[in-house]
Design a protein that fits this description.
Length: 328
């Protein structure tokens, strides 16, 4: 992976750095923030992480030590935006961009926008964590166990535990290297997958019972009213991964997870097994992401919007021949 020299130079030249990732942050965004933040501190820089949200399952990344204090408002030499395709996905954190002399954007989304003063966009990367690792190497940082754990978490999250089509030989080579640097994969798995709250399991139960098959079984639909979340005593962050329940059914080519969010919007998650480009479908609704995993934030009635999204997917599947006989 080739790191642009301007990205390396921007990091080298900066003394004070603030790191940001997207709203509803995931293991790729926060794992990258943790690894790069710790790496920049090792180089003697003042590095902070903007952390308006920190899901409980990702607390093990050690981000608390990097948290930007409220009193620290800048100016910063450099803001580094990780795993963020456009400024709208930064929501309340945009002020930090304005408070920074330079903005470095590192992202791997299919539809990334170059909103930095320096932009490194690589849709071939399996995770932003892969790019972060390459940047740390280019900066001459030797990864310790904590940094390697951040990168490894990024890989595990965005490849679905090395199960998705973005898993390349290089991804697995990097994972092996990270283990040699001190990552304990079973500990990461325990934190990510075996530390659920009872409320999360209750939510999974309720969600499983609501899954429907549409488009002759090619689309798995899960629509979730906010009340179900409340009844289960679950937080919105506990919805992470629910879309995969609808994706896991034989014959399903695309999964739709649509839920009512507490701010009154509808949060859409789309997943594909390869036949349909869900990024293109999400884009029709003002969202984006990757070909196999995309999302959007919508307004409207839950059931009506679910039907609209299913229809859009059904059309895409027909175009892609996804509703004909399997050829592979
Ligand atoms: P998830 O379904 O896990 O929330 O997100 C899957 C992918 O879709 C991620 O790459 C994420 O960046 C993208 N995505 C999710 N929600 C939105 C959204 O509201 N707007 C845009 N542009 N992308 C989204
Ligand atoms: Mn990512």
């Amino acid at each position: 992976m080739k790191v642009p020299q301007e990205a390396v130079q921007a990091c080298k030249a900066a003394q004070s750095v603030v790191l940001l990732t997207h709203v509803q942050p995931d293991g790729d965004g926060l794992g990258s923030v943790a690894a790069l933040g710790l790496g920049l501190r090792k180089l003697g820089k003042k590095a902070w992480a903007s952390l308006p949200e920190l899901p409980r399952t990702l607390e093990f990344l050690g981000l608390a030590a990097l948290k930007l204090p409220a009193a620290e408002t800048g100016p910063f030499d450099l803001a580094i935006s990780l795993d963020v395709p456009n400024p709208a996905r930064l929501k309340g954190q945009s002020e930090l961009l304005k408070a920074s002399r330079q903005v470095l954007v590192l992202d791997h989304h299919f539809d990334s926008q170059p909103f930095g003063t320096v932009n490194w966009l690589d849709p071939q990367a399996a995770a932003t964590g892969e790019m972060t690792d390459a940047l740390l190497k280019a900066l001459g940082v030797e990864l310790d166990a904590a940094m390697a754990t951040g990168i490894y978490t990024a890989l595990v999250t965005d490849t679905g535990s090395f199960r998705y089509s973005n898993t390349q030989p290089g991804t697995l080579r990097l994972a092996a290297e990270l283990l040699e640097a001190g990552v304990r994969p079973y500990e990461v798995s325990r934190e990510l997958f075996d530390s659920a709250n009872l409320s999360t399991l209750r939510l999974h139960g309720a969600a499983l019972a609501r899954i429907e098959l549409k488009a002759e079984g090619k689309v798995g639909l899960l629509s979730l009213p906010l009340q179900v979340l409340k009844d289960c005593g679950a937080l919105e962050e506990e919805c992470e991964g629910l879309v995969n329940l609808a994706r896991s059914i034989r014959g399903v080519e695309a999964a739709v997870f649509l839920r009512e969010a507490s701010d009154g919007s509808l949060k859409l998650s789309l997943r594909s097994k390869g036949k349909v480009d869900v990024q293109a479908v999400a884009a029709r609704f003002g969202g984006g992401g990757h070909k196999a995993a995309a999302g959007a934030t919508l307004k409207g009635d839950l059931n009506a919007m679910a039907e609209t999204v299913v229809k859009a997917l059904d059309e895409k599947l027909s175009e892609a021949g996804g509703r004909g006989p399997e050829t592979d």
